[in-house]
Amino acid sequence: MKTELKAVKKPLNHQPQLRQNLISGDWVLFSPKRSSRPHQFLSGEKVKRVSKTDCIFESPEKAGGGKILASYPDLKKWRVQVVPNKYPVVLDSDEKAKIRKDGPYNRMEGYGHHELIITKDHDKNFTKLSIVDANMLFNAFRERYKEIAKDKNTAYISIFQNWGPKTGASIYHPHYQILSTPILPPATERSLVNSKRFHRKNKMCGHCAQIKIAKEHKRVFFEDELSVAFAPYAPKEPFEFRIAPRAHSPYFEDSSEYEINSMVKSLQAALKKLEKVAKNVNYNLYIHTAPTKHKKLYDFYHWHIQVIPREIMPRLGITGGFELTTGIEVNPILPEEAVKILNSK
């Protein structure tokens, strides 16, 4: 039996409701009545600006321990450079990582790659980059992805940015990270399993379905001919959003120059709207894509970018204990209302 994809009547905004994520299966509790209490959107905790003379990333080569992995457009007039992370969470090795038994447990060597992608301008985060530099950054992502994918220890590659102290960022100068692991992360594996199940049941991609429904429910807040920015049906955080190619596309690394350019423009436009909602907004940015091995097995997937703002609205007093004991996140604003606010900016 196929899943019903038609728009349904939405409940009144003041009614609490539980919504389930189509892909992860996670439930989110929305309590919008609490968000109607007098408040202002919170200003994020600002990254403390370090002067350029004291910034380690002004010289990526030194930051990378004397090694530059890639430089764009060239070494002399660089705008984007890639270096090894000086404090990697995984170890590059010629040995093959293997699952081993440790009593009833499984363990494996933490082999992989951990790289930093550093942009030239000290005070220009992604929204302030020129379209040329922003495209160059994403092309660097794509080229390093393809290179790391060749490693026998690479099962999955994560590309992400932490912006602001609330997200784990500790350095002011804008930078991004690529991290590979010899296993599929549990959240990724769950997403793939559910995406495959949806595709088998409905003969269509779950993410394509989400884009279609988001347009019907007025949860889209930026789009062009090749990409779309939208709020998901069950976001865990207020003002969380996705950027996705309009056309079905499983693999980030196989995207065309036109598609990358469109995704970059949509991401910049969406982040600019978010920055108008909350000053100094802290956020985590991720690229979700299909695994590197056995690519024909994942044609049902749809690559996309996820942006999760941090503490953009006051946390509800009960959420810490409730979330920890149940695994159910509490969100004080419905995505439809969040999109109205974003579209007003």
The CATH superfamily label of the largest domain reads: HIT-like
Name of the CATH first level of the largest domain: Alpha Beta
CATH topology category name of the largest domain: HIT family, subunit A
Question: Globular, elongated, flat, extended or rod-shaped: what is the shape?
Answer: globular
Discrete helix count: 8
Helix-strand topology string: EEHHEEEEEHEEHHEEEHEEHEH
Largest sheet: 10 strands, antiparallel
End-to-end gap: 41 Å
| Quaternary structure of the protein | single chain
From the coordinates shown, what is the CATH architecture of the largest domain? 2-Layer Sandwich
Give the DSSP E fraction (strand runs of 2 or more residues). Answer: 15-25%
Question: Structural class, judged by helices and strands?
Answer: alpha+beta
Strand line-up in the sheet with most strands:
3-4-7-9-8-13-14-12-11-10
How many domains is the backbone divided into?
2
Helical content stands at: 25-40%
Q: Compute the number of strand runs.
A: 15
**Mean pLDDT score, rounded?**
90
What is the radius of gyration computed over CA atoms, rounded to a whole number of angstroms?
Answer: 21 Å
